Every structure is written in structure tokens, then in C-alpha cells.
Amino acid sequence: MCGPMAPRPVGPQTHSDPHASDPSMSTSSSPTTVPEARARIDEINERVVELLAERQAIVDDLCELKADADRTVRDPEREAELLAHVRSVADEAGLPPTLAETLFEEILAHSVERQRRQRADGAAGPSAEESSAEELSAEEPAEKATGAVSTCGAQAQAG
Hints:
Strand content: under 5%
Helix content: 55-70%
Pfam families: CM_2
Number of helices: 4
Enzyme class: isomerase
EC number: 5.4.99.5
Structural class: mainly alpha
Keywords: Isomerase
Domain Chorismate mutase: 28-119
């Protein structure tokens, strides 16, 4: 198993403004003071962190699903699709696509590392954990250079 699952909201997620009734905190108007701008940025930062935590919980679920299906942690085709989509959304939103891509490359790297550690923690015996640690240090440079898919922990596949 890949570890305990964190609770997350159930049902459709809405992105309504929790401060819609407070005109000073509305997202539809521009801040007029430095403290107001900083407060809005702080709120956005909190939402970003909450969304990252929600994403991480889903990555934990995905780790278990992949392990049950005897699939590898990395899926370079999916990663390329995700990065292309993120670049497109960023461009439409007026954000530099390279910024969004760089951020999501880091998020993906964290997700891959987290899944590998979870698989190693769920593997039987200390030798599986040791081999997973060796795999982490040995594979990363090759994966970045070649995009090769790797296996990890007790879920290794032939071929």
C-alpha cells in the first residue's frame, strides 16, 4: 500500500470568492493599498497551498492505483500532455507559459519522488527500501536525460 490517505473534499469543487460580501476583499476590484494587495496575495497563496495539498492526496490515491495495476510510477507521455496543457492554460490566463511549466515540472518531480517513497515504504523487507533508494539516486539523471520510464519498489516490471 502507499500509505494513509489524507481527507479531501467530496463532490464538485467551486472556486467562489469567500470574501464576496466584503467589498474590501473582493477579487473583482484591484487593491488600493499595499496592505490590501499583500492581504489578497496571502489569501491566494493559501488557496494555492490548499490546492497543492488536495493534489497530493490524489497523487497518493494514484500511487495505490498504479501499484494495484502493476504500473510504473512515471508516465512520460502523460507528463508531456500535462505540461503542454499547463502551458496553454497559462498562456490563456496571461501568465508566461515557461513559468507555469517550470512550476509544474517541480510539482511533477515531487509527485514522482513521493510515489517512489510510498512504494518503498509499502515494500516487504529492508532490502526493497534499500534498492528503492539506490534506484532513486541512479535513475533520476537518466530519466531527465532520456525520459525513460522507471519502476520502483516491489512493483518492478520486466521489460
